[in-house]
């Protein structure tokens, strides 16, 4: 949790009071996330994954992307407690910038964020293809599964370039070749451009195409092979929530990159405000692993039926953890 370790003896009473107030606010938000959002997000991500994998035959193109997002969400769920309970300025050794554990978790976080953003982006593009050219199988489940494989591979390769900067910052005194790769801001700049700017442009372009084709009445509007209209609402909601929750994180990353490249640093009250906004943005980013599966659960019409079949198959053996789902499904089916 955020604390006032950054304060020093020169801070006046007003600065110390501001630091304490920001610390209290962020600590409350963190506790709410860890007590409420974290277990629910973990449960629903696992539920989304298991239910769809059990019903592979009935999976649609959007389901594959949401399964992909759920896997990345589980990774974020694993990282979240370590990140939120032990940032660098609490002097916790596990989260020291020069520690290998920190670097590993940071790379996992970057990979997960890239998978989430690009899965959402490609979902919007594939949805346009499905609307424009139904029954062409260009956005089929088979093709989407291979695309998701490329997403994970591309995320790993993209994060590898950032990994070089972080590693060289750690071992620059030992390896001469790393002398020109000590700039952490360069790694952050890569993540901002590839992880946010490119997906934002692609999503904007996809939405323009979707709105254009939905305004034009065509004989294909009555095509039975089209996706359920609820998918459009799910797409709009998922893309909107993803960018709302991830934009503050990338904005703070961009600010840090800009000031770092100019050799500037935050001091006094500006430093306290910056660290508060930085950790609040990370908390919002972690919240995407809670919001996405919950939204999918309530907006996907077929999910309750799939869950009901799974529960009948297990004969009530999965009552632990997500036991409340059984009563909810029974009400829906009734």
From TrEMBL:
Tell me which UniProt keywords the record has, alphabetically. Answer: Cell membrane, G-protein coupled receptor, Membrane, Receptor, Transducer, Transmembrane, Transmembrane helix
Specify the G-protein coupled receptors family 1 profile domain's residue ranges.
Answer: 44-296
Specify the protein's topology with respect to the membrane: Multi-pass membrane protein
Primary subcellular site in the record, as a coarse category: membrane
Protein's cellular compartments: Cell membrane
Entry GO MF terms: G protein-coupled receptor activity
Q: Which gene encodes it?
A: gpr146
Coiled coil segments of this chain: none
What Gene Ontology cellular-component terms does the record carry?
Answer: plasma membrane
Q: Provide the species name.
A: Erpetoichthys calabaricus
Pfam families named among the record's database cross-references: 7tm_1
**Quick check: keyword Transmembrane helix in the entry?**
yes
Residue spans crossing the bilayer: 24-53, 65-89, 101-125, 146-167, 189-213, 234-255, 275-296
Descriptive protein name = G-protein coupled receptors family 1 profile domain-containing protein
Q: Which Gene3D superfamilies match?
A: Rhodopsin 7-helix transmembrane proteins
């Amino acid at each position: 949790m955020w604390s006032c370790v950054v304060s020093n003896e020169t801070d006046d009473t007003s600065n110390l009071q501001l630091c304490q107030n920001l610390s209290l606010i962020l600590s409350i938000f963190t506790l709410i996330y860890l007590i409420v959002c974290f277990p629910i997000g973990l449960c629903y991500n696992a539920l989304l994954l298991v239910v769809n994998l059990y019903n592979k035959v009935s999976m649609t193109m959007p389901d594959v992307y949401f399964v992909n997002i759920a896997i990345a969400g589980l990774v974020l769920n694993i990282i979240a407690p370590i990140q939120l309970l032990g940032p660098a300025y609490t002097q916790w050794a596990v989260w020291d910038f020069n520690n290998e554990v920190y670097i590993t978790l940071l790379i996992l976080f970057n990979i997960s964020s890239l998978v989430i953003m690009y899965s959402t982006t490609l979902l919007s593009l594939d949805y346009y293809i499905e609307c424009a050219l139904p029954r062409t199988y260009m956005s089929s489940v088979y093709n989407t599964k291979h695309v998701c494989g490329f997403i994970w591979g591309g995320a790993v390769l993209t994060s590898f370039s950032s990994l070089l900067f972080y590693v060289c910052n750690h071992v620059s005194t030992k390896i001469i070749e790393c002398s020109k790769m000590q700039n952490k801001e360069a790694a952050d700049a890569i993540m901002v451009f590839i992880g946010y700017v490119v997906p934002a442009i692609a999503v904007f372009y996809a939405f323009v195409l979707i709105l254009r084709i939905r305004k034009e009445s065509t004989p294909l509007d009555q095509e039975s092979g089209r996706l359920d209209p609820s998918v459009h609402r799910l797409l709009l909601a998922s893309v909107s929530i993803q960018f709302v929750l991830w934009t503050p994180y990338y904005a703070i990353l961009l600010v840090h990159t800009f000031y770092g490249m100019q050799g500037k640093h935050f001091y006094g009250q500006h430093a306290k405000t910056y660290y508060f906004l930085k950790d609040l943005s990370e908390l919002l980013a972690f919240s995407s692993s809670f919001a996405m599966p919950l939204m999918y659960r309530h907006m996907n019409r077929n999910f309750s039926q799939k869950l009901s079949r799974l529960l009948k198959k297990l004969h009530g053996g999965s009552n632990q953890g997500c036991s409340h789902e059984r009563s909810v499904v029974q009400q829906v089916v009734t």
